[in-house]
Every structure is written in structure tokens, then in C-alpha cells.
Write a structure and sequence with these properties.
7-stranded antiparallel β-sheet; Protein Transport Mog1p, Chain A; 6-stranded antiparallel β-sheet; Phosphorylase Kinase, domain 1
């Protein structure tokens, strides 16, 4: 496995003997599901990699069982594939009640770390890597296994020149039940195929792995993701709907990348054509990457949250599922401002006075009477064509999101307002939050902390207020959401998030939007 250290985890397991056989010698990696050690097999006298499952303390029993099953499936999935470009699994053993995967040890570095250190690669080097990845995917697909998390961080570049696809932790075998919940997506957002983001094909097929291969090749030659935007929500939206900037450095790889990054999976280039074309590009050229230094990195695999239990909630959840997928791996900064699962992932708020109880000025302030105040200076009235109009700050940019939600981004890209109307959602705005959404937001984004969730009223109608904090990659954030319902079960949702240190500056924008709401059929 790749030598990846510096994640700050305890090293108390150093020198332990696992299953009476595997001596833990050096911690070499840490990911969302566990820690990887270089170990000595005392029976056979060889080095192996031991992946130990890590259980976050906040998980419920059913979630722990899911992690156990994913670990076993990872071993089973990889063991079904016999190919030199796929990691070899030797055994699955029990250690203090936790399953551990014993794999071959490959002295290596990840493609992700090479790209961070060296930048873009020449097309022939990228083609050589892509050829090995394609061969590994063909072998996996032939064995009935979908990888579902193909990305540069899961490609090992061996010191001896070998290229290995690893981390089948969220792989899916044909004929087995899914471990994801309805409306849930797992994977890294920058490499998710558009059909997965749209929710039309939640488990998808081999074509989705090939899309991720195309995104990986693009990043290899361009040094950046093909659809990266300022925030993960914009990235997800771009993957689902926008064209990508044509590669300027791909050379002979251009037709392969273009064939793989076709949004329609039925029209996407298949793996056999990919291998054929990459064979033509590589020819006899087998130049290796230079031997890199050992990187410091820690992967974070964060599955998304949200599942609906009726037509309205499902519509809301599909949008949020698109947005909250393994975000830390593909984002250097910014905030997923219109999703409570956060662009940078919700986090525990630890700064002084705002840590736990909101002041009176942070409670929702809906207008106490049906009289709607005039639009204040510096604002204009926006009608998102959803039956509701709200005042929005001048100069903010409108975005229409998959599923019908509408967002407005401030010029910095760090603050945003979201407006949505959910039909058939029920008359209790808190029900969805309490039953599913908060639980999954907290589970999928360690450190989330509720500030307040309470019943309230809005112009005489039942309403719910939710305020919470989360931690971005570059800064802390705070968000507030008001949802109110009408007698027919339609829910109206207004949401704002902003950097926590500027919350008092931007909170009035939320209040203005809430107080200035106009229901179009009441106009």
C-alpha cells in the first residue's frame, strides 16, 4: 500500500500481533474506513498490508454492522479478481472483534500524491497508468464487481513500476444487496458519473467506473479536475449538466478522454475500446514516474445523507444526495452553502460564545403579521418559478440545482441562499429533519453540531427552524434554515449559510428573505 503518514492518529497498535500472526510494523495509510499497516507475516516471513476497520464513536449499531459488512465485501470483491493491476487479498482475520483485511504490501505512492507534487503528467505517462487502470476495471467487471470509487487516490504507483487499483471498500458485487440507503450516494464527488448524481441509476454499472477513469485521466494530464468549481454543489451541477473545458495537454489521449466523459452512459466508450486506444498511445513507451518521496495525506470517505419517505421528501433528498459526497477529497476550500451537509463537511463548532446556545438575535424572526414589508434598498425580489418570491441581495448569482431547488451565491462564493418548494411533504416541517436528515448529516459529516432545532410559526402556519455549525476545509461555517408548511402539505424552505466569523454580518440576509417571502398565489 502507499506510504501515507502524518494523519495524527494514535500509534498504540505499533508492535501488536494481529490474529497471532501479523506483527504491525508501520502505519502506512488511513482512510474513511480504517487504518493500513505494514506488517510482518510471522508464519510465512513476508511483509503484508493489514487494513484495520476503524469505528467512529458516534455510529449507531446498524451503521457499525454496515461497516463490518463493507469490510468483508471489500475483501470478497478484491479476492474475486485475479489480475496484476488489482490488489491481492490474502485473508480476512478478526482482531479484538473487528475484521481486518490482509493484503499484499506494495511499496508505492498514490497517483494523487504524484499529481500534487509534480503537477500534470505527460500524455504517455498518463496513458500507461490509464491502460493499467482500464485492465483492472475490465477484470473487476468481468468478475461482476463495480469499484464505484475510481480516483487518483486509489491508484498505487509501485516503486517497481507496477500500477495497482486498490480500495474496493465501497465496491458492489452483482447479485448482492446494496449497503446504501435510498437516496444515498457514496464515492468522491469529483469522479461521480452524471447518472449517479441525477439519481436515475443509483447503483449504475460499469460505465460509471469508466467515467471516473476519464476524469482521472483528465486530471493526470491537465493537473485539475474536469468539472471542479468553487463549491461542491457547483461541481455536482457541472458534472450533471455542463460541458467541461477541452483538454489542452492530452495529445493522443484526447479521443479517449472525450469518449469517457460522455454524459450518457449508453454512449460512453467501453473498456475494450479504451484498452485498444491506450495500447496505440503507449506503444512500447514504458517510461516510469520518478520515485517520489513519501507523502503526508489522509483520505476521508464521507458518504452522503438523506432519504425521503414520501414523494416530497424524496425530491428534496435527491438534490441533497447529489451534493454531500466525499467532499474533503476534492475540495481545497469554500463551503457547500446550501446543503446542511456542507461543502467542506459539517463540523463541531468549538469557538467561544456561539458554541451551544444562540442569542435572542439568532432566533428566527418571521413577520408576526400577514403584512409583507417592502423590499429594502440593496435587494431585489427574485421569483424562482416555484410559487414563492424572496428578497435577494443585489449582485448575487442565481443557480438552478438538480431537483428544482434554486440558489443564490454572493460574489465571494462563500455565502449563499437557497429557496425550495417541496410538494406533498406533510404539514410538520420538523418531521423529516428529526427522523432522517439530521441523523444522516451528523453521521456522514463528523463534527456536525446542532445549535437549535425548534418548532415555530410563520404567518400563522406551522414552521420549523434549524441552525447548526460545521467546519469547512478553510474556515468554520454556520447555517440556518426555515421551513413552513401550508394546509395542502406543501413545504417552503429558505436556507442560508456563511462563514461563522461573519455570521452576524450575513444573518440579516436570511431574516430579510424570510420576512419578505411572498407566496405567488397570494399576491
Amino acid at each position: 500500500m502507499g506510504s501515507r503518514q502524518g494523519d495524527g492518529l494514535a500509534v498504540s497498535d505499533l508492535g501488536r500481533l494481529v490474529a497471532g500472526r501479523y506483527l504491525l510494523v508501520e502505519r502506512v495509510g488511513s482512510g474513511g474506513m480504517g487504518t493500513v499497516w505494514r506488517a510482518e507475516d510471522k508464519l510465512l516471513g513476508r511483509h503484508v498490508a493489514v487494513k484495520k476497520l476503524r469505528i467512529p464513536p458516534h455510529l449507531q449499531d446498524d451503521e457499525v454492522r454496515t461497516l463490518y459488512e463493507r469490510t468483508r465485501r471489500e475483501a470478497r470483491s478484491a479476492a474475486r479478481i485475479t489480475h496484476p493491476n488489482v490488489i491481492v487479498v490474502h485473508d480476512v482475520v478478526d482482531d479484538e472483534g473487528l475484521p481486518c483485511i490482509v493484503m499484499e504490501y506494495v511499496p508505492s505512492v498514490t497517483l494523487s500524491d504524484v499529481l500534487k507534487r509534480r503537477g500534470a503528467l505527460p500524455p504517455e505517462e498518463a496513458a500507461r497508468i490509464g491502460r493499467a487502470m482500464a485492465a483492472a476495471l475490465r477484470a473487476a467487471h468481468d468478475a461482476g464487481v463495480l469499484h464505484r470509487d475510481v480516483k487518483p487516490a486509489n491508484v498505487l504507483l509501485g516503486d517497481d513500476g507496477r500500477i495497482v487499483l486498490t480500495d474496493f471498500g465501497i465496491a458492489m458485487e452483482s447479485g448482492t444487496s446494496s449497503l446504501t440507503k435510498p437516496g444515498e450516494l457514496i464515492g468522491s464527488i469529483c469522479y461521480l458519473a452524471p447518472e449517479r448524481l441525477r439519481g436515475a441509476h443509483p447503483e449504475t454499472g460499469p460505465a460509471s467506473d469508466l467515467w471516473a477513469l476519464g476524469a482521472t485521466l483528465y486530471q493526470a494530464v491537465e493537473g485539475q479536475d474536469p468539472f471542479r468549481r468553487a463549491t461542491p454543489i457547483e461541481t455536482a451541477y457541472a458534472i450533471a449538466t455542463d460541458p467541461y473545458e477541452p483538454s489542452r495537454r492530452a495529445g493522443e489521449l484526447t479521443p479517449v478522454i472525450e469518449g469517457l466523459l460522455v454524459k450518457d452512459p449508453e454512449q460512453r466508450m467501453d473498456v475494450h475500446e479504451v484498452e485498444r486506444r491506450l495500447d496505440e498511445v503507449t506503444g512500447t513507451r514504458t517510461a516510469r514516474l520518478d520515485s517520489p518521496t513519501r507523502p503526508d495525506r489522509a483520505e476521508d470517505l464521507t458518504p452522503p445523507g438523506g432519504k425521503g419517505k414520501d414523494k416530497g421528501n424524496r425530491r428534496r433528498t435527491v438534490v441533497r444526495s447529489v451534493l454531500a459526497v466525499t467532499l474533503a477529497a476534492c475540495l481545497a476550500g469554500g463551503a457547500l452553502w446550501w446543503l446542511k451537509a456542507g461543502a467542506d463537511g459539517p463540523s463541531k463548532h468549538t469557538s467561544g460564545s456561539e458554541a451551544s446556545t444562540p442569542s435572542p438575535t439568532t432566533s428566527p424572526s418571521p413577520s408576526p403579521s400577514p403584512t409583507v414589508p417592502p423590499v429594502p434598498a440593496g435587494y431585489h425580489l427574485e421569483n424562482p418559478d416555484t410559487g414563492i418570491s424572496v428578497p435577494v441581495r443585489d449582485g448575487w448569482t442565481r443557480k438552478t440545482l438538480p431537483g428544482g431547488e434554486v440558489g443564490y451565491i454572493d460574489p465571494s462564493g462563500l455565502v449563499g441562499l437557497r429557496v425550495n418548494v417541496v410538494e406533498f411533504a406533510g404539514t410538520d416541517p420538523l418531521q423529516h429533519w428529526r427522523e432522517t436528515e439530521e441523523e444522516q448529516t451528523a453521521r456522514d459529516n463528523p463534527g456536525y453540531e446542532r445549535v437549535r432545532m425548534a418548532e415555530t410559526t410563520f404567518r400563522g402556519q406551522p414552521a420549523g427552524y434549524w441552525e447548526f455549525t460545521f467546519d469547512g476545509r478553510a474556515r468554520k461555517y454556520r447555517a440556518a434554515e426555515l421551513a413552513f408548511a401550508r394546509a395542502d402539505g406543501t413545504q417552503y424552505v429558505i436556507y442560508l449559510s456563511a462563514p461563522d466569523e461573519q455570521w452576524h454580518e450575513y444573518r440579516p440576509i436570511f431574516d430579510t428573505a424570510v420576512n419578505g417571502v411572498r407566496l405567488n398565489d397570494d399576491a
